[in-house]
Amino acid sequence: MNCDRLQVMFSYLHDAMHPKFVPVILAGGKGERFWPLSRKHRPKQFLCLDGSGESLIQATANRLLRLTSVGFPDHEGETRQPIVGGWEDIWVITSKLLETGVQEQLPSLPADNLLAEPEGRDTAAAVAWASLEVAKRYGDDVIIGFFPADAWIGDVEAFAQTLGAAVELAHNQGAIVTLGITPTFPSTSYGYIQQGAVTRQERGLKTYQALRFTEKPDLATAKDFIASGDYTWNSGIFIFTAKTAISELQIYAPELMQLLIEKGVSIYPTLPKISIDYALMEKTKLTHVIPADFGWDDLGDWNAIERLLKGDSINVELANHVCIDTQGSVIYASNPDEVVVTIGLEDVVVVRDGNVTLIVAKDRTQEIKEVLGKIKENPELDRLL
Predict the structure, then answer these.
(1) What is the pLDDT of residues 271-304, one digit of tens each?
(2) Is the pTM for the entire model greater than 0.85?
(3) Half-sphere CA count of 243, side-chain side, radius 13 A
(4) 95-115, pLDDT tens digit by residue?
(5) What is the rounded CA–CA span in Å between residue 189 and residue 269?
(6) Per-residue CA distances from 273 to 122, 180, 185, 279, 373 (Å)
(7) What ranges do the domains of the chain cover?
(8) Which of 167, 186, 204, 194 has its CA nearest to residue 292?
(9) Annotation: CATH topology of 3-297
């Protein structure tokens, strides 16, 4: 699609009549499921996993920056102003351990827009602190969107159109809006959102009341969810005004909010460790979900690479790979000078990075975290983490 058409596709007014929209990238986490490529100082969001040369956090930031120059038409068909004003509107919250890495990954990010948590306390603390800090700068009418740093999105146009609808709903109705992903298979690795009654329909997008959040169900339950047609995957993307977020967190997570408001970031290590889903989204009555289909994957483990890249190929090869009778496999090497040779393998993941080689059956990649637990028990192997 050409640039002229893009400029007519999606935008959002953030002048005096419409408060500013500020995206916050959630860039914490360890990324252990992509070990050995991911390490303590090189988590998943710093990796390029699709051969594009762009890391996941860079792709997330650039996707949001595209909203500075393109937009969707308003009700009268007139083109609105951009959603995001540029780097000055983008924030990132990460851990102190990863602060320097984020600065290296996103050198154009203003220093004041980077929040470094002294200690990871899960997503509720991150959302609460970021909401308070963004509100201090822009006022509590500012609309904030939270975006995981490590998700893959295929259709940026559809993403922006859905995001524009969510921003409007958050602004006009004081709603807490989450984007649900239309499921394509019964995943046991994703959270699910149950949809209730339709609350809004515009630009071909329906919004539903969010009835229930379920974390990573077993296979039988996941199949039931998909068969019902009432569930979407939880994308971890949500949008609300700072005023709504702060007031609802004060109601449903008062022990967290009061400490942050009274003591500031110095109290961080004592905050409750709880996800935003448990702390707020499952309790508030203001949550709405917009089902979306813009090509999404949370890249949860090495099998995600196959979903993204396989196509008609026998294997997914991000390495110099010489093979005989190997099929259905993912082969990755971080050093382009190294060669991976396989004979007679099927449905495996082979990863070569530095001083570690991982070979694992595709259906057992979730057990990588158990391996890391064993490595942590041996001080001599700490260098591998």
Answers:
(1) 999 999 999 998 999 999 999 888 898 888 898 8
(2) yes
(3) 12
(4) 999 999 999 999 999 999 999
(5) 28
(6) 6, 24, 31, 10, 21
(7) 3-297, 305-384
(8) 204
(9) Spore Coat Polysaccharide Biosynthesis Protein SpsA; Chain A (3.90.550)
